[in-house]
Amino acid sequence: MFLGLTLGLCSCASYPERTAEAYSTFEAGHLADAARMYADPQTTGSEFLGGVEAGSVAFTAGDWAAAVAHFEAAHGTVKELEDRALISPTAAGESMLTWAVNESMASYRGEGFERVMLHAFMGLAYLGQGSLEDAGVEARLANRVLESEEALYEKEYAAGGLGHFLSAVMYEMQGQPDNAYIDYQRMLGKQVGVQLAGRGALRLSRQLGYSDDYEKLQARFGDDSKRPDGAASVIVIGGVGAGPYKEPFTLTIPTPDGVLQWSVPRLESRPQYVQALEFSIEGSSTRVRTDVIEDVYNVTKQNLEDRIAWLATKSAIRSVLKFALTKELEKKNPLLGFLAGTVYSLATERADLRTWQTLPNTWQAARIFVAPGRHGLVLAAVGGETRALGEFEFERGETMFIFARTLGSQLHVHVIGGKATDSAAADAEPDKMSTPGATTRALPENSLDRAGETL
Question: What dihedral do alpha carbons 327, 328, 333, 338 form, nearest 10°?
Answer without folding.
Answer: -30
